[in-house]
Amino acid sequence: MISLFRNYILNFFNSILLLFIILLFIPNIILCKTEVNNQLDYYKAQAHSVNTINFIEKHFKWNKIIEVMIDSKKPDGIKEPEFLKKIGKFQHYLENMSLFHITNTSSLADIVKTMNQRINKNKYNFYKIPDSKSELTENLLTYNLSVPFGRDLNNQMNVDQSAIRLTIRLLKSSDMQIKRVIRAIHDYSNKYLKDYRVNVVLSENKKNASNSIERINYNDFNKRFNIDKTLLIVFKDEKGVFNNKTLNVIQRLTNKFWKTKYITRVDSLTNYPNIYISGDNLDVRDFIKLKIPNSEELKKLFSLYIKSGKVKIMLIDLLSSILPYSKEKIKDLIKNPVSKENIADLIAETIRLKLPLNKHNLKEFIDAHISSNEQVVKKIMSKFFPTEDEINSFFQKYITKNYTLLRELTYKVMGNTALRKSLILPYLKNNQSADEIIIRLRDFLDKLPPNKKEIEKLIKPYVKGRKASNLLVDVLQTVFPVYYDKRKLKEWILKETLSKENLIQLTSDFFELLLPMTEKELKLFINNYLASNKHESEKIFNTLKDKVFYSRFELNKKKRIAMNDKLIKGFFISNNSNATIIKLSLRIPDFNKKKIDYFLFSIKKILHKENKRSGYQFYITGF
User: Fold this and answer.
1) b/e per residue, 54-85, with b = 16+ CB within 10 A?
2) Can you give the pTM of this predicted structure?
């Protein structure tokens, strides 16, 4: 038997060897292919999460989005009532075809219907597009003027208001299912929307999804509707999201995400622009506003209980919540001279806290805390902002090698904060794309800051051991209102006691900094800084709770509104109201992997901190 096996091996050795080699290299071929695909769309690969998609599918009953652009073919055409009425009928058709597995659709038509209903005392039969063009135009203008910057309707319509987008959310979205929906869009458009241009928005790798319908590239669609990449944050509370703890988490995350680099827009349940009628006026406000007590009432209450001896405890608690140091280390930083190593560490932490910094503010910080030597300042600044030589090299690569033109263009760019195409157009050759170069230029000028260890290594040769009070003032300035000047904050750090007036102001502002907070956190604040006994603690808590928390009646009212609002239910909250989505819009070029990684790390860091505070498990994915 052994000899037969040996003969078999010898006879077929070459074939077996070839098979072995093929099997050995197949995984590498697959990996190479994956790497190439990831390079083509690195953001999707890094941000995608199967667990999150499954979570959304389970709780929101959709796992795929199709975008459709509907163009009226004329400026301001979307303000024609007939146009929006036809869009509304189109949505109704899609949502009522069970074969398509469409969970919901959304467009500008839904917002216009909601406005009309609110204006007409919330009567059900007024949930429709108004017949008057002037009324429709006025309502849209009022809406855009009422919402804060970055939350207007510009992501629902294009610049000349000739086209709108229609978002379709589906479940069970196989390739066959997608094709079936696209075919239905095509058939309906040819029959009922033939006066308009209808485009299904497809990514590059879906070009073969349908040959019979006009398509628009996703990047072109994003530019036209001012839409960026999207990241979804989802989490749940088994008892439902309409409780103070969950709503506070949504508010905290919404506020933090707005301050995160590369995020251009944050949409959530709490900041959803809800339409109200105040007298005869239409108003748009956050659906669930952060409850903040009246400042004077707060000071009056605190003045009855405040203890001057607790000022240092408050300071240490605040600093330890900002810096990654223990309370013992904070005490040591306040009281004693600090070693060169610890000063370098604190400077690095403070710079990271203060980011993003413009050139003037960074130079001012370096002069104050590191060195005023011109060469040292220049060296440190070069790690945060591109140098003149680096900008020169960029233009050499992409535009011209002519020395005179290079100097002229570099000088123009260094003196401009707003980069517009007109700046570089005169220097471009006929075959060059101004859009592409301006995107690359903006990306190039937006230099990623060094990490903490890199900053420490960079500054350590130029710092000395000393008192840390001035640095701690800079740390406090990152969280306190602008009217707290350095002198006032330094007094708080150095003095053991403050005047009662300053102490009341400080405690009141510190309290507002901690908002929104849970009931447990409110009780902790009262016990740590105000109350001397249990009776006082309960009395203060009962006075404050209605000022910072929504009542059960108010929460139920908000829930009823949300569950009957088409633009909230199914997207910002699940059908059973126990899960919620926060949508982040961000602007990072696909070709810059480091910035995508930096952004995703920042988001995960925020979520990790919130997980430790609230206990919620968060899921994230790119869409």
Assistant:
1) ebbbebbbbbbebbbbbbbeeeebbbbbebbb
2) 0.86
